[in-house]
Specification:
The structure holds two protein chains of two kinds.
Chain A: H1 2-10, H2 14-21, E1 40-45, E2 50-52, E3 61-66, E4 77-81, E5 86-88, E6 91-93, E7 99-105, E8 111-120, E9 126-136, H3 138-155, H4 180-183, H5 188-197, H6 217-230
Parallel strand pairs in A: 2-9
Antiparallel strand pairs in A: 1-3, 3-7, 4-6, 4-8, 5-7, 8-9
Helix pairs in contact in A: 3-6, 5-6
Chain B: H1 14-39, H2 42-57, H3 61-64, E1 73-75, E2 80-82, H4 113-116, H5 119-122, H6 131-135, H7 167-178, H8 181-184, H9 207-210, H10 213-221, H11 223-226, H12 239-252, H13 274-283, E3 291-293, E4 299-301, H14 317-325, H15 327-330, H16 343-354, H17 372-385, H18 427-436, H19 454-465, H20 469-472, H21 492-500, H22 503-506, E5 508-509, E6 512-513, H23 523-526, H24 529-537, H25 557-570, H26 588-601, H27 626-629, H28 632-640, H29 642-645, H30 658-669
Antiparallel strand pairs in B: 1-2, 3-4, 5-6
Helix pairs in contact in B: 7-19, 10-12, 12-17, 13-16, 14-16, 18-19, 21-25, 24-25, 26-30, 28-30
The chains are: A alpha+beta, B mainly alpha.
Chain lengths: 244, 679
Amino acid sequence: MKLLRMASLAVPAMATAALISGCMHASAPQALKPTSYGAQVAEVSGSKQIAQVGSTLAQPVVVQVNGADGNGVTGALVTFHGEGMQFTPAQALTDPSGQVTTNVQVGFNNGDYQITAETPKSGGGTSALTMREIALGYEQTLGKVVNDQYCIRCHDSESTPERVSNLDNLSPVPHQFVDGATLNRISDGDLNNMIAHGGPALGKSPQMPGYSATLKPAEIRAVISYIRTVADPPYQMSGVKYAK
Amino acid sequence: MTDQNKPLRSRPSLREVAMFGVVSLVLLASLAVAPAKNYFSDWRHYQKAYLSLASERQNGTLVKSFHSGIRQTWVPKLGVVDRCESCHVNMSGALVGATAQPFRKHPPIPHKLEEFGCVICHRGQGPATSVEDAHHTTDAWEQPLLPARYVESGCGQCHLGPVDGTPRLNEGRKLLASQGCVHCHTVTQPDGTTLKASDDPPSLQHIAEKTSREWIFAWIKNPQAYAATSTMPNFQLSDQDAGDISAFLMAQSKPSLAANVTLKQASVSSATDPTQAATLYGASFCSSCHAMQNAAGNLVGGTVGPELTRVGSKVNPDWLRRWLNNPHEYDAETLMPHYRLDEKQLGVLTGFLLDKKDADLLANVHLGAGSADGVARGKKLVTESGCAACHQINGINPPQNFAPDLTKVGSRALAQIVFAPGMKHNLPEYIAAKVHDPRSFGPALKMPKFTLTDGQVDSLATALLAQTDRAASFPTELIVAAKHGSDYHAGGDAGRLMDDLRCLTCHAINGNGGDMAPDLSKEGSSVQRAWLEDFLSNPNTLRPALIRRMPKFNLTQPEIKMLSEYIGSAYQAPGLDSQTVDPHQLNADAAGRGKQLFYSRYGCNSCHIADYKNDKGYVGPALAGVGNRLTPAWTYKWLKDPAALRPGTLMPNFTLKDDEARDLTAFLMTLKAKQGGGK
């Protein structure tokens, strides 16, 4: 009895999260035999996507294995891993163009996820590539809804058939929310003031209107949380940092 | 020794003593099981780990104030007894920076955890005190923790309409309506309302006029081969079945009213200029509702009407001309407006659409006239497949309770479920797999295969998982009902004209109608009569960047008069009249101050264009001719509180003072269009 209990306790705290997503129970990947080896693994597409927690990224992640000559290598082995994530497939050989495509499901927690794609090199050792994906929890999702409704017209350079970006029409040009280099330096309090009372509240442009009579305080908080989550480079919370 | 001398009880043998000892030990050991189990329980282990983490990282107050023991959230009215916080001790985030479970802080949500507990959203077994029992399926407990991607289903138990912050649940509910799920399945919400379908499957009562048996065959074999965006599911029919069904559908067809209309043949030559045709298609804004693949292979256009990429392979030319002339004669319920095209335009547009062909689509379909046997078999198949649940078909009544009721599918007992081989035995997996590919559960099942992305499958599963037993028994004060539209239609001659133009396909009025174009419920207070007449005769978008625009309906002058008078008088905002602003105060001085406010104080030009030469704002409507368009009273009230007049508008409330709003109104009223036009 004791032994049983001890055994179950031996599963560390992390197992809880792992069990929830069920990823640890996926059958161990069958060892694929690479037919050739590359020198380097490079990203083709799929990093920095934004998805809700627990969901599959809208676009698959595609990486390419290149040989020493910089051309794609067919039949090289690529292995994906990353804490809390599931990959379908987690391991594959590169196709004739030297690429591997995998679908990625992010985990239960909001925030950053790191994907590592590894390929064994011809001379031994491995080449690895890390990519960042972003998961939105409830608050950031609400922030994204508000962003998509009110902010995106001026704070995003991308246009769609339904809405045309107004970013280039403005001077000074608004900061895009992914612009971590700028926005990470502004405190939560200042961001809150600017959103609630407009640019002039901090001596900035009146092009930015105040939203205190339009958005609820919780919605403004949610937008700030969203801005912090999508920032690139990532936003580091102030205060003491601990290892996990 | 004699028997008398023998003592009544002999001394126990060594064996007996040993036996007794063992039994006693076993008894003691078994008595120790309960305290030992308690001592080695998961929650005790985690609480110890938490305390050591806390003492490592923070001063002693957190450790001193910590009460160890089982923690329970009890919410009698919801039937919640949750002990999750016995291990997840840091839900409030008192210990800062703990990122690994079970000590992660619960992310912010709009509810207090102690009011709802955990299992209402996350499922699992609340009263359990071990990791295994709480999170997983056990012999006594079916519902494991809900995977994160379905967690919004928890919100959907009380919130019956769309909620900001639960896009997946909202999408799932929308799909239940738009994919036609609720034509066959009943989904009743806790407040007793039943979800209504929002798609518009066409009536098949006159189908022989519209298309050929060959096209019907190809279509029902694989609808997405004809139109990738079609919501018609794939019934995975054999050639024989599809042939018989197409024979029956042709046989049941009866002539429509459109068949009696005599159309004059267009006098134009059949070789119309393709540019002219494309221009007419564009100028009629067909693409606001219909999608079509462009030269680059991208699908461009709306989803209100069917995709037109291959329409030339589908329709009979004569039907198309009659349809474009007046669609309501063929289908009185269609969302398509009556365009009032002249003969030349009819000819050009018909030719343009008939050119949109796919030679491969019907290349290998060769069917003669259907045999009587085939027709009879087709009728049987149509009845059995439930086609009449969506489409009107002569001689077949819509089936009642055709498919299982899904009102409580989110709590369905696993014993009632037949799992496909190799599936994990839990409810979310079952629902998602069933939505994704129903026939994987057996080829004989009736439910057809829908074309859905993985994300859409997750959304549908989320919406269905919200349909729980628990929700049905929640106290009614917790239930947040969905907003229900009205069935408003304008009355009288103007109402008939508005129905003919199908205004409500795009515009909402008094709670009924589409969301593609502005709500017109208060339009009469908003715009000036002369502008409205001008706009109706030549609609020009107010927002230069918008692709979807109001089509030109070739209205006659009396029709325009009638429409603008009706809109002007019937669609008034309450509490708004000519006295709202004093016209004498809208003078040049005020306008001067207003201009300052517009450009300097409030930066209105970042979103609006007041002067095409200098301003570039693209977000709101251009204001260059607003002095001809809007009424001063509306402008003033709008500036004071835009959301009060149009809930959900992008325009923020600037909390303007009365005199600021008045000055801005004065400035805006000076912005007149050059020649009284609608620009």
